[in-house]
Specification:
It is a single chain. An 8-stranded mixed sheet has the order 1-3-2-4-5-6-7-8, sandwiched between helices. α2 packs across α11 and α3 packs across α4. The protein is of the alpha/beta class. The N terminus and C terminus are likely disordered. The chain is globular. α10 links the parallel β6 and β7.
Amino acid sequence: MINYYAVAAMAAERQKTLLAEARAARIANLAGNSVGRRTRHLRLDRRRHASPKAPSAAPSETKTNLPRIAFARRGVGETLVLLHGIGSSRHAWDPIVRGLAEQFDVIAIDLPGFGDSPAMPAQTEAHPAALAAAVAAFLDKHGITAPHVVGNSLGGWVALELAHIRPLRSLTLLSPAGLWKGATPRYCRASLRMSRWAGRRLTGPLCRLVRFRMARLVVLGQTHGRPIRMDPRYARMAIRNVGMCPGFEAALNATTRRHYQAGPPITAPVTVAFGTRDLLLLRRQSRHLGELPNGTHVLALHRCGHIPMADNPASVTELIAASAARARWHAGRTGQPYDRVVSARSTGVVPKFPELQQK
């Protein structure tokens, strides 16, 4: 038989043991929560009293955030850097690179957002001074200290800004942008936007049309002085460049309300040339030379347009070589005056170079 009294006694004893264990567990739990709260409070206090971190440099101010620059290099001699215009690429210089490479170590650059170079970072405005900073970082990376620099259109403006932040041997500006007063003239903005629209929307038809001489005159007559003589492959390249480059709008918007303003002194000899058939930078709108350094040589390229390299490669090559010769003469490396160097051959460059005496 089952002894109910013994079972009842055992059950009562078991219940007392369970109650004691539950009470002990509750006390331990309360103690643990108290320690956890104290630990969290200590962590919060440490965070409150910790010294703040130093702010990191803005992305636009660090060289590591500057875009990679694509380039082509050819030749031997003094370094010569070529900067193209808006909506173009380093291949705009192809007609004259071979001739220049016989005298110089030629580096043709794709500015950020054009050709094979990626665009500037989204937080960086692509104005000429920022593009010049990217070019300066490129020169530093490749150990280039004081090159000759040639710029066309926007590249001429970038070259001027570059001359304010690093020494250059000489500065040759072919139809440089930015020499207007106030904002960019509406005529220039409208012309560039129309070229961009046509290059993007009508790439195929235009590339087929420029096989014909008269079609090249219609399509490229505003920016080139002799499009009828132009190689159709060069014409197709120009159309694709303006239509496909990712940095066009950013560069155009960044220059819309700006113009070139003189900054720190430019010590390099400066030569400026405009094509007599330049129909983009009109004489009374976009050729105000008052901000250029004293002693700037101003000349004309006969029968050449805004982008003269394909119009008369021999004249442009001679002009660049003469500008470099003037720099060497000024540095005391040769005893031959600049005018004598230039007039040694006649290929369309005006032989007399009136100097700009006053701003």
